[in-house]
């Protein structure tokens, strides 16, 4: 049997050493012209093509590269921009403005791309909008890809129109479903032209990326959108001669249902259908429906969201099942399950990890290694029924996994899960329930706080001096004691600023923390770390996820020293700052050999110990951040509830051991929470601080409509924008909050942590936030004469101006 064809669906665009991040941020700082920034970006893009070509990939994705975010790229190219940006010339500057905001022009909302940790900028659409397509940058990228690779190896990536609309929100007050249908009808001609133009550049294939297909099983609206748009879009493509590129409809992040698969299989003018075989049950769908007829099956068997090598014990049975379900006549193409942007670029860069933990390093496969895995897995598939030959193709993978399993000190699989459940059971009735209900314990917490108490989310600016200190400690040029003393000066500064500004609940500023997950992972047993394992979170923001490689435990306290230093400097309460178990899990790369619930429970038990130590140190308010709760949720409703059950239980396992008088905060940001509000309520956090500034109060209104009974901290201003909000801006936000939620249950803070901002932005923004809260307190007191009842709140809402 001949070897299967191989293909990619996209590659990390940050560069092996974050070259794109550095170029973009230098441009924002005025140190690099737009032309030089674009030249640096093109170099990163072209080097990625060369790497894929050198690995022997048959069909290489082009057109997947952009400077900030692929959804934003299409918003700008289609000219579907909010009115506040309509007068700005389309292109790079406008796209950055929509992403970051400008004076008088708030940025687009930002949320997670399906259930990943990648963020995108949410299009703000109206039904009366008229697309004015100009895909100049995209087509230029595709043209350069064809020139670099040759047309026979280039596959143009196009974000599908239904997914684009599925990811958008409608701001004109009408039905979102009606808006999507109306705009899709207008997008048909734009996409017909885009596909013709891309095909005319000589690509071998047009990859139409439609991850929203995974949600079509549970949405009659989505099914209708696909059924109406695709025949009309595809019918204009030539079937022979110039511009006759093959069409591949690509789905990922889950399986598709039987009806959707049948529709895909019957689509005319479609030569290939690509499915994700690493999540859901795509094999079952394929087996029930029957083989594809006259189409190639793009088999996404290389997990694009995991850093682990393909395990022969898993992938060989999977290949056999796919071949059996697809039938002998269906051509199978081996490819990653999705764009490889969700994993770091190259594990070969991890010299330190290879030296310190060679068995762990040997079992890793980042994007560059996954390119070679495509060839190995294709050879295993070609071996067919010859099990020995198939195993031979993956011999190096088997050896790596054998070495890894021998090196880990922890239990594996069912034994690991059973041991963890035994530890939880030993906690008895207090494992998942606080000693007092919220209504009783809140009366005991932080007495003396004013109406609309002010705080921040946790972090303060990570200055060059702080980064220099970390680098010196890492290199051994300063000792730990010297480092701690220097960090204490930054803690003192942060406490002094907050005291001077008049905030009510303070934070120590997290100067010692590189990243909210990495910091804790470095102090836990069972985690491995990379030097250069960066992945893009949003825009130029990159993170370096820890890799869970063994059983997780806490050998010693993690945050007590810095809390004690901060609390000794003020009489006001200082938060203990922790990252929650689900966020550590979802923002790390989990083990491949143990279920995620078990790993979450292990993390929760470690945090439970930390909370007890914080309380013993005198901490009265502890924040356990869970911004990643929503993003780990499966796309299919039938799987969602099972995930939310154990995810919430993990948070409870970490927090419910706290004393009733200890106020537990959490923080959530940049997700659509509407479909998991019940789970958020079950977290039973005393205060939940949420991102709200970009969502036009819709997030807050959703919590109110769901009858949320705990304290809530809606973000008053956007920390991702350099714009400093005025007192009136923040007061208007607070007044708008009062239209949806009782003022007496609102805690005032920014949208998120402030580590990415500069002190000269942070201090005036917080000063204005504190002044706005004080002004509203004065309004309430002046209106009611006492207290802050409903009548006073109504008067505040109706006021048009503050101070």
UniProtKB/TrEMBL annotation:
Zn(2+) binds at residues 667, 669, 691, 752. Its EC number is 2.1.1.14. GO terms for molecular function: 5-methyltetrahydropteroyltriglutamate-homocysteine S-methyltransferase activity; zinc ion binding. Binds 2 Zn(2+) ions per subunit. Belongs to the vitamin-B12 independent methionine synthase family. Residues 452-774 form the Cobalamin-independent methionine synthase MetE C-terminal/archaeal domain. It comes from Tribonema minus. CDD domains: CIMS_C_terminal_like. L-methionine binds at residues 457-459, 510, 625. Catalyzes the transfer of a methyl group from 5-methyltetrahydrofolate to homocysteine resulting in methionine formation. The active site is at 720 (proton donor). Its cofactor is Zn(2+). Residues 6-325 form the Cobalamin-independent methionine synthase MetE N-terminal domain. Pathway: Amino-acid biosynthesis; L-methionine biosynthesis via de novo pathway; L-methionine from L-homocysteine (MetE route): step 1/1. L-homocysteine binds at residues 457-459, 625. It is an enzyme of class 2 (transferase). It holds the Pfam family Meth_synt_1. 5-methyltetrahydropteroyltri-L-glutamate binds at residues 21, 117, 541-542, 587. This is 5-methyltetrahydropteroyltriglutamate--homocysteine S-methyltransferase. InterPro entries: Cbl-indep_Met_Synth_N, Cobalamin-indep_Met_synthase, Met_Synth_C/arc, UROD/MetE-like_sf. Keywords: Amino-acid biosynthesis, Metal-binding, Methionine biosynthesis, Methyltransferase, Transferase, Zinc. The lineage of its organism: Eukaryota, Sar, Stramenopiles, Ochrophyta, PX clade. One of its GO terms (biological process) is methylation.
């Amino acid at each position: 049997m001949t070897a299967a064809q191989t293909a990619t669906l996209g590659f990390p665009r940050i560069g092996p050493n974050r070259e794109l991040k550095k170029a973009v941020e230098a441009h924002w700082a005025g140190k690099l012209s737009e032309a030089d920034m674009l030249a640096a970006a093109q170099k990163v893009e072209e080097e990625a093509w060369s790497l894929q070509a050198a690995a022997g990939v048959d069909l290489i994705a082009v057109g997947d590269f952009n400077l900030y975010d692929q959804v934003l790229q299409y918003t700008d190219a289609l000219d579907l921009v909010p009115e506040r940006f309509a007068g700005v010339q389309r292109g790079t500057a406008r796209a950055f403005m929509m992403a970051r905001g400008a004076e008088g022009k708030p940025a687009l909302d930002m949320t997670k791309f399906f259930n990943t940790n990648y963020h995108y900028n949410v299009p703000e659409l109206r039904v009366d909008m008229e697309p004015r397509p100009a895909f100049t940058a995209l087509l230029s990228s595709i043209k350069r890809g064809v020139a670099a690779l040759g047309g026979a190896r280039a596959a143009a990536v196009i974000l599908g129109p239904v997914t684009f609309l599925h990811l958008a929100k409608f701001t004109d007050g009408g039905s979102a479903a009606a808006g999507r249908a109306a705009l899709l009808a207008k997008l048909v001609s734009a996409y017909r032209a885009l596909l013709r133009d891309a095909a005319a550049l000589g690509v071998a294939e047009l990859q139409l990326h439609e991850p929203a297909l995974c949600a079509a099983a549970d949405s009659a609206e989505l099914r209708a959108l696909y059924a109406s748009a695709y025949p009309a879009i595809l019918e204009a493509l030539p079937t022979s001669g110039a511009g006759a590129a093959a069409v591949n409809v690509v789905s990922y992040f889950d399986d598709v249902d039987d009806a959707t698969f049948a529709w895909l299989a019957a689509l005319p003018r479609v030569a290939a259908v690509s499915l994700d075989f690493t999540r859901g049950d795509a094999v079952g769908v394929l087996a029930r429906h029957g083989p594809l007829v006259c189409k190639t099956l793009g088999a996404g068997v290389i997990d694009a969201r995991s850093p682990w090598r393909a395990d022969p014990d898993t992938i060989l049975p999977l290949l056999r099942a796919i071949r059996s379900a697809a039938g002998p006549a269906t051509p199978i193409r081996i490819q990653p399950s999705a764009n490889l942007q969700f994993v770091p670029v190259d594990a070969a860069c991890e010299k330190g990890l290879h030296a310190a933990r060679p068995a762990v390093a040997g079992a890793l496969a980042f994007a560059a290694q996954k390119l070679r895995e495509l060839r190995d897995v294709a050879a295993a598939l070609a071996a067919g029924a010859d099990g020995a030959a198939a195993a031979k193709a993956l011999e190096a993978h088997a050896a790596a996994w054998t070495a890894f399993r021998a090196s880990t000190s922890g239990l594996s699989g069912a034994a690991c899960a059973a041991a963890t459940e035994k530890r939880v059971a030993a906690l008895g009735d207090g494992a998942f329930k606080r000693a007092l209900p919220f209504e009783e314990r809140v009366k005991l917490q932080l007495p003396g706080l004013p109406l609309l108490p002010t705080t921040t989310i946790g972090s303060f600016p990570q200055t060059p001096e702080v980064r220099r200190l970390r680098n010196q400690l890492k290199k051994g040029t300063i000792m730990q004691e010297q480092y701690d003393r220097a960090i204490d000066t930054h803690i003192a500064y942060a406490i002094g600023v907050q005291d001077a500004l008049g905030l009510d609940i303070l934070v120590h500023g997290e100067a010692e923390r590189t990243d909210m997950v990495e910091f804790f992972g470095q102090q836990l047993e069972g985690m491995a770390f990379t030097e250069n394992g960066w992945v893009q979170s949003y825009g130029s923001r990159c993170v370096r996820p820890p890799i869970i490689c063994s059983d997780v435990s806490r050998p010693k306290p993690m945050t007590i020293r810095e809390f004690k230093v901060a609390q000794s400097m003020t009489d006001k309460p200082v938060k203990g700052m922790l990252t929650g178990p689900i966020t550590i899990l979802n923002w790390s790369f989990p083990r491949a050999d143990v279920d995620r619930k078990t790993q979450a429970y292990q993390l929760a038990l470690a945090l439970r110990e930390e909370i007890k130590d914080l309380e013993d140190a005198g901490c009265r308010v502890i924040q356990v951040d869970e911004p990643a709760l929503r993003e780990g949720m499966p796309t299919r409703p039938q799987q969602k509830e099972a995930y939310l059950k154990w995810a919430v239980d993990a948070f409870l396992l970490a927090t419910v051991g706290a004393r009733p008088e200890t106020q537990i905060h959490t923080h959530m940001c940049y997700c659509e929470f509407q479909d998991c509000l019940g789970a958020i309520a079950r977290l039973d956090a005393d205060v939940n601080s949420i991102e709200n500034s970009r969502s036009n109060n819709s997030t807050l209104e959703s919590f109110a409509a769901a009858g949320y009974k705990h304290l809530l901290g809606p973000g008053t201003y956007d920390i991702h924008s350099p714009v400093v909000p005025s007192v009136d801006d923040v007061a208007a936000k607070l007044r708008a909050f009062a239209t949806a939620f009782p003022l007496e249950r609102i805690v005032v803070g920014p949208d998120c942590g402030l580590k990415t901002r500069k002190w000269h932005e942070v201090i005036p923004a917080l000063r204005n936030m504190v002044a706005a809260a004080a002004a509203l307190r004065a309004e309430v007191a002046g209106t009611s004469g006492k207290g802050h009842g409903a009548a006073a709140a109504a008067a505040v809402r109706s006021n048009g101006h503050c101070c």
